[in-house]
Amino acid sequence: xxxxxxxxxxxxxxxxxxxxxxxxxxxxxxxxxxxxxxxxxxxxxxxxxxxxxxxxxxxxxxxxxxxxxxxxxxxxxxxxxxxxxxxxxxxxxxxxxxxxxxxxxxxxxxxxxxxxxxxxxxxxxxxxxxxxxxxxxxxxxxxxxxxxxxxxxxxxxxxxxxxxxxxxxxxxxxxxxxxxxxxxxxxxxxxxxxxxxxxxxxxxxxxxxxxxxxxxxxxxxxxxxxxxxxxxxxxxxxxxxxxxxxxxxxxxxxxxxxxxxxxxxxxxxxxxxxxxxxxxxxxxxxxxxxxxxxxxxxxxxxxxxxxxxxxxxxxxxxxxxxxxxxxxxxxxxxxxxxxxxxxxxxxxxxxxxxxxxxxxxxxxxxxxxxxxxxxxxxxxxxxxxxxxxxxxxxxxxxxxxxxxxxxxxxxxxxxxxxxxxxxxxxxxxxxxxxxxxxxxxxxxxxxxxxxxxxxxxxxxxxxxxxxxxxxxxxxxxxxxxxxxxxxxxxxxxxxxxxxxxxxxxxxxxxxxxxxxxxxxxxxxxxxxxxxxxxxxxxxxxxxxxxxxxxxxxxxxxxxxxxxxxxxxxxxxxx
Length: 574
What we know:
Elements: E1 3-6, E2 16-26, E3 31-42, H1 48-52, H2 59-63, H3 72-87, H4 93-118, H5 120-126, H6 138-145, H7 149-169, E4 178-179, E5 182-183, H8 189-232, E6 248-251, H9 261-268, E7 283-286, E8 289-291, E9 298-301, E10 339-342, E11 348-349, H10 351-359, E12 362-368, E13 375-381, H11 389-417, E14 437-446, E15 449-458, E16 461-468, H12 470-475, H13 486-491, H14 501-508, E17 512-514, E18 517-518, H15 519-527, E19 537-540, E20 543-546, H16 548-556
Parallel strand pairs: 6-11
Antiparallel strand pairs: 1-2, 2-3, 4-5, 6-7, 7-8, 9-10, 12-13, 14-15, 15-16, 17-18, 19-20
C-alpha cells in the first residue's frame, strides 16, 4: 500500500488536497494499483459567518458574494432570499423574473466554463476528442486538428452570458441589484432586447456545439470502455464507472414560478416540499426513492473537522458560529470543512442531483428557442445511478441549454409583467427599512449544488449567520460514524496507472492517424515544449502514479473550497 498525496489540486477554486491510500488488485491480465481509501483535505478555514455578526443585515448580500469569485451570484441570491424570509416579504413577480434571469445567465457561464476548461481536458484527452482538449498548438492546431476548437469558442460564449448578468446586475462578478423584497433594476426595453439577442446566440451554441460534443464524448467513451476492458481483463465502462459515489442526491430547487411563490416559501418555512412549480425541484433521492425536502433534516458532523465536538450533529443554525468553536490543532482532524448529512445519510449535491431529483434517471426534454422557434430534443439515460464523471458532465451541458431557453422565456414575460408589478414589494416602505428582529433561511442552488444561508436579526443587526455550501456537502470529510464524504467515496476504486498520459493514450488509441502518429505521441509533441510531459504524475518511494483519472473524479464535482473555508496555515518544507 502507498499513500499518494495530491496537494494542491488545480483547476478549482480554493485550496484542496487529497490523500489516496492504494491497494493492488489482480485483474487476471495484470496487477494494478487502485484507490482503497481517500481523504479530502479542505485546507482553509471558513470565517464569513463570523465576519457578518453585528453588521447591517443588508450587508449579507454584498459580503457573501465575496466568499467566491467563481460563484458570487448564487451566494448573493441565497442571502437575499434569507433576508426576504426574515423581513417577512415576498419578491414581486417582476423581481422574481429578473432574479431568475440573472441567476440563469450566471449558471450558463459557470457550467460551460467548468465543462470545457476545468474538467473537460482530461475527458477530451482520454476520449481522443480534440475539440475538448486545450488549444496547446494555438490557432494552427485549431485549424488543422480542431485541437481546442470548442474550448476556445466556449470562452467567447460564456462572456455573453456574463454580459447578461451585468445588464441586470450592474456588473459581474459581484452584481449589485438584488434587495430584500425585490430588485433595484428596472426592466427596460433595451435590457430585454439585449438579453434576447445574447441568449439566442448562447442557445444556438449550446444546441449545435455543446450538445454534439456531449454525444461525441459518449460515443468515444464506449470505445475507451471496450479497450480498457480488454486491457484490464475486467468489464470497465470508463467514465461511466469512474466517480461513482453513494447514490443519494439532494437538491433544494432553483428558479421559482413568479405566480406561485407560495410553493417556493414552504421549504424555507421548514415544510416538506418538492417545489414542483420551480424549473428545478427540491428533494432527496435515496437510491431510487424520491422524498420531499425537509429543512430540519440537515445536520453537520465535525469528528474529523477542526471544530469542537460539542457542535457535532446539530442543525447548522443551532450553532453560534464564533472563534470559540474552532479547534485548529484537533487530534485526528484532517479538514476545515464540516460533514453535512441529510436524514443521516451522505448526499451528493450538484448538477446531477438537480437533474435526478427533477427528471429521474431518464431525461427527455424538448427545448424550443422562443425567438427563432428552433427546437432540439435532449435525451439522456443516467449511465450510473450512483453518479459518474460522464453523467455529471451531461447534466451541466443539458442545464446550460435549458437555462438559456428559460432566460429568453422570462425576458419575453417581462414585457407583460413590467407594467403590472413593481420591482420591490410595497411592504418595504423605503430602502432604509430593517426589521428589529427576524429569522430567515435561503435555500438555493449554486452550480456546484445545494446552498443554504441562514440569518438571525436582533436589534437591527445580524446576531448569527451560517452558510452550508455545496463543496461542504461534496468535499467534506468522514462523519462521526466513519462514512466518507461523496468525493472520498467516489475516488475509491479509481485506477492510478504507472504510465504517463501519452503512454496511456497510446494504449487506448494505437492507431497512427494524428499527423501520422499515435494519439499519445501527438499529445507528447504538443505538451512537452510546455513542460507538461509528466503532467499529473506523482512519485512515491520510486513508483509513479498517474492521477489523471482521480483528478477527473474530483473535478467532476466542480470543487469550490473558497465557499467553505477562508484562511490557510502555511508550513514550509525544508
